[in-house]
Design a protein that fits this description.
With about 400 residues, this protein is an alpha/beta fold. Helix content is about 40%, strand content about 10%. The chain has 14 helices and ten strands. The chain is elongated and about 85 Å long. Keywords: Nucleotidyltransferase, Transferase.
């Protein structure tokens, strides 16, 4: 097979997609395809479920998202110059770097650009473009929007801009055919754009449900989303019932004039290789000052804290303080939790510097002299003869747990 569906909405495109993931990958397998993408609207909620389900049936999962892009700043809450609040753009992770960048893009859409939808702008795309393949999306895409308005030169300018952001060979002009007259017009203009710019075409079907007969229940789902009745004339519809998982033969019949666009789907699929490892702890890297690595910086902070907490004393209650500190630091390093302690130290320090209530320390974390020296806890583990091993030891398989909540009286 030489066709891959690259524009796919699952049940995680809430109240818009009705394709259940397990049913979706099963259908793709039945059609003899070896890969499929997930490109839910603005979110990546379904990526892990999709990844696991695809792997289970021997299908390559291509991880992506159909994001919302504003032509202005993501911080501005107004309609853009094209007359739209945002445009669609399909992004696919080519590799692990691209997957990480895609998560950052989607997160920025929610934390910084939310206006009706989680939007990003070109500043975000330029910052996180590495490892990502972009498709121009459906009729709501930026390029298609200009073409629908009869503004070919603006569409060309947008296409070239997107190519410059993602790099040559990493941006494709998307053509679709769901029996909509507007798409026929846009597709012809996309061919012209391809000829004038050299940007390759890619053929997709905007999948929102698995089987052709699912069109009616999907229409009801849209009514729930928009608060309309099925009988209402003026409402959102997906006309024609063509938004299902089509076979390669059906796709070739739709685009006999652009068979390269069919072949390009498989070429893109072959390029997309993301591996997600499960059962492995992943701790963010803590940015340390220049001249230090994470462990040397943690050691420095602890040695400073040791002097602050115990003064010049070398031994307390029969315990050699430096030896205890070195033992704990070595254990923390060997178990891979150096960054974890620095992260906890950082936000506890921030809280205390800004008069945010923090508890004195509860549970097993209070048994650590490292925690005490970093002022994560305020209970002296030496004086109270608390055991570090109850908190952290080489036999422990789970992440250490530091309770930092303030006690309410």
């Amino acid at each position: 097979m030489s066709f891959t569906h690259l524009h796919v909405h699952t049940e995680y495109s809430l109240l818009d997609g009705s394709s259940k993931i397990k049913e979706l990958v099963k259908r793709v397998k039945e059609l003899g395809m070896d890969s499929i993408a997930i490109t839910d609207h603005g979110v990546m909620y379904g990526v892990i479920d999709f990844y696991k389900a695809a792997k289970e049936v021997g299908i390559k999962p291509i991880l992506g998202c159909e994001i919302y892009v504003t032509l202005g700043s993501r911080f501005e809450k107004e309609t853009g110059k094209s007359g739209s609040k945002y445009h669609h753009l399909v992004l696919l992770a080519e590799n692990d770097i691209g997957y990480h960048n895609l998560m950052k893009i989607v997160s920025r859409g929610f934390t910084e650009g939310f206006y009706y939808k989680p939007r990003v702008d070109y500043e975000v795309l330029e910052q996180y473009h590495e490892g990502i393949i972009a498709l121009s999306a459906c009729l709501a895409g930026e390029v298609s929007t200009w073409l629908r308005q009869g503004m070919f030169e603006e569409a060309k300018k947008s296409a070239l801009h997107l190519q410059s952001v993602f790099g040559k060979g990493n941006f494709f002009l998307e053509i679709q055919d769901h029996g909509i007259k507007e798409q026929q017009i846009v597709n012809q203009q996309m061919l012209r754009l391809h000829q004038e710019t050299g940007i390759d075409l890619v053929a997709t079907n905007d999948i929102h449900y698995v089987y052709e007969e699912d069109a009616t229940p999907h229409d009801i789902l849209l009514c729930i989303q928009t608060g309309k009745k099925v009988a209402d004339e003026d409402r959102m519809r997906y006309e024609g019932g063509q938004y299902f998982v089509k076979s390669e033969e059906q796709m070739r019949e739709l685009f006999p004039y652009a068979l390269d666009a069919i072949e390009n789907t498989h070429k893109i699929s072959e390029r997309c290789n993301v591996e997600i490892v499960f059962g492995e702890q992943k701790v963010p890297k803590f940015e340390v000052p220049q001249g230090y690595d994470a462990f040397s910086y943690l050691t420095k902070l602890c040695e400073e804290g040791l002097k602050k907490r115990y003064g010049t004393a070398e031994v307390q209650d029969g315990v050699n303080l430096k030896e205890r500190l070195e033992y704990e630091l070595t254990t923390i390093k060997n178990m891979g939790y150096v960054d974890y302690f620095l992260i906890v130290w950082d936000f506890i320090k921030y809280a205390k510097d800004h008069q945010i209530a923090v508890g004195p320390g509860r549970g097993s974390a209070a048994g650590s002299i490292v925690s005490y020296c970093l002022e994560i806890t305020d209970i002296d583990p030496i004086h109270y003869q608390l055991l570090f091993e109850r908190f952290l030891n080489p036999e422990r398989v789970s992440m250490p747990d530091i309770d930092v909540g303030a006690t309410r009286w």
